[in-house]
Structure prediction request, 237 residues.
Amino acid sequence: MIEADGLSKFYGPFAAARDVRFKVSEGELVAFLGPNGAGKSTTMKMLTGYLAPSEGTARIAGFDMHNDRIAGSNRLGYLPENGPLYPDMTPHSMLSFFADARGMTSARKSERVDAVIELCDLKSVVHKAISKLSKGFRQRVGMAQALLHEPDVLILDEPTAGLDPNQIREVRKTMHKLQETKTILLSTHILQEVEAMASRVIMINEGRVVFQGSVADLRAVKGDLADAFYKLTSSVA
Prediction:
């Protein structure tokens, strides 16, 4: 459902990503790990078609995201880190706006807006200005927008960044619900979340994939997830 086939992105002599290769199969929730500046966000942007690769091919549900981006995007929900929202809108008005932009019928729009408000637990703030919402609720609004068109694939870039433990718990609950019907690639720095949610881990460092395997495989690298992360991503490890 998600495939990075030799993805590279060059800015002059600098390689933000180099020959990144992996696949995520239907129904998997895969954690995408790496230190800051490792190339995670660049890779995710290439997978979504937001950023054109210098080399290689990104595929979503079999669609080449360079040649068939619209078809691929119809199967994809994308939540970038600090995803853009319209602060003067309410969650309901913003979701309605995106439903109209996607050409949904009135009946379909009403059904889907209600469904994602329920799924993302936005009922208490649905008519409150987004600018007045906590970071946790703003993340939920972004998630609701990504889910609005019922995509099969979700790519989520640091969805728990800046959230408190209670808000992280709510995101985890939502992830467990979504995993029943979606294929998910999730970028995070929180190793406990990886252990709690992920079926597999892909790790990137300095633009290259340095590990692919289960959480148990990652722990076996060093006996502890944090130590394994350090060993695989530190130049002095």
